[in-house]
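Render this sequence as a predicted structure.
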Amino acid sequence: MSIRDRLRPKTSASVPPAAAAAGTAAEPAPAPAPAVEVPRVAGIHVPDDVLTAIGAAIAAVPIDYGGGSSITKALVVADLVLEHELSTYVEIGVYKGRSLMPVGAMFAALGRGTAVGIDPYSLVEAMQDDLDHFPEETAQQVNEFVRSQDWDAMHDGVVALIDELGCGDHCEIVRATSASAVERFDDASIDVLHIDGNHDTESVRADVEAYRPKLSPGAFVVLDDASWPSVRPVHADLSASGERVFELLDLPKMNDFAVFRMP
């Protein structure tokens, strides 16, 4: 039974798009914990050892203003990997690794697979231009936050965390722009592509188009912050060229993503 059959798409169009950024800003960062108890979700079947690995990885990267990937997203990706026996996951836009680390930890628990995170860890590349759809104060906060980060230290912290979680054989960071990293991958080699880099429309579209030839037949594309107006045009593109199999907008729980299956 496919994820499409077991998980019905859910949306909440009543939530204004600007709330995506505002909601993230208001979400308090939880205190670090040695583990997170990952709840069972109806329709998703993940072995206990994989759940434990995912919980430890999520606990290692608390939510903050710049990154709030949810437990639900981690479980959806895990379900796809297990259901379809996928082995190559590529993520564009890693930040502190809250969505990458659970996948690397899962592959380590399974003893197979590779998770590759691509991020230049660069102030210039992280600056957002398509923010006119947000309130002026929110738009200013986004780029003020970007300017405040120590991108070199963030990169080093993510690399160290991969080792701490014991998934170094199954997870790696490529410090580069998505455009310069694309040639590292053979055509038809990527099973899951997670798009979560710069959210300007043309940047998101460029990532999808550059990596489209690298997707294996029937590959999945996970589109983050799918409710953002700057991301919606790419959501429409993927809906037209592939099949939307899952979508969830639940901002209080840090869920705003869509999953597409490509031909």
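Summary. Confidence is low (pLDDT under 50) at residues 1-34. The CA atoms of residues 43 and 163 lie 32 Å apart.
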